[in-house]
TrEMBL record:
Pfam families listed in its UniProt record: ChaC
Function: Catalyzes the cleavage of glutathione into 5-oxo-L-proline and a Cys-Gly dipeptide. Acts specifically on glutathione, but not on other gamma-glutamyl peptides. Glutathione depletion is an important factor for apoptosis initiation and execution. Acts as a pro-apoptotic component of the unfolded protein response pathway by mediating the pro-apoptotic effects of the ATF4-ATF3-DDIT3/CHOP cascade.
Keywords: Apoptosis, Cytoplasm, Golgi apparatus, Lyase, Neurogenesis, Notch signaling pathway, Transferase, Unfolded protein response
Gene (UniProt): Chac1
Protein name: Gamma-glutamylcyclotransferase
Signal peptide residues on this chain, from the entry's feature table: none
GO biological process assignments: apoptotic process; glutathione catabolic process; nervous system development; Notch signaling pathway; response to unfolded protein
SUPFAM superfamilies, alphabetized: Gamma-glutamyl cyclotransferase-like
Reaction equation(s) it catalyzes: glutathione = L-cysteinylglycine + 5-oxo-L-proline
Annotated localization: Cytoplasm, Cytosol; Golgi apparatus, trans-Golgi network
Source species of the chain: Chunga burmeisteri
Enzyme Commission number(s): 4.3.2.7
One GO location term (cellular component): Golgi apparatus
Amino acid sequence: VWIFGYGSLVWRPGFEFTSRKVGFIRGYSRRFWQGDTFHRGSERTPGRVVTLLEDCGACTWGVAYEVCGEQIAASLQYLNMREAVLGGYDTKLVKFHPQEKDAEEPILALVYIATPQNPSYLGPASEEDIAAQIIVSSGCAGHNIEYLLRLADFMRYFCPQAEDKHLFSIEEALISILPWLYYTEESLEET
């Protein structure tokens, strides 16, 4: 079984796997439209994490993990709790295209997608509003800023050919807010 990750799974799968491949799926765009009140936020300040939006001309880069034998049941049980129960994601099968030049046919992979029907779905917002929400959100897996920056770094270093304007625009908005936030906090401490 192959499992495709496009958010925190790219750097922290949390389950044992046999192999992994960097690549992409077609027909979807990555969006920070899912709320998170457990891993990267709280009930009071929900974080923003990614989901996939159907988009026929787009492709989303990430990592596919191959799980075999006893790994299958353990990984699916873990991901069901992490993504479905705590995250509000549904599963779907997609065609994964490995980055490798000698790759043959696409691989059928399982992916978790949060739909507008789940209670944590936040939907669209401006890049600046999403960045502002990410700055103030933290959950049991860490700060929401870490989630955004690690995902942007992964895309930059492992998928340099990928275009993800949404992701990099939010990263840019966050970076433009942070010096102001630092300056404001420093000023408050002096008074």
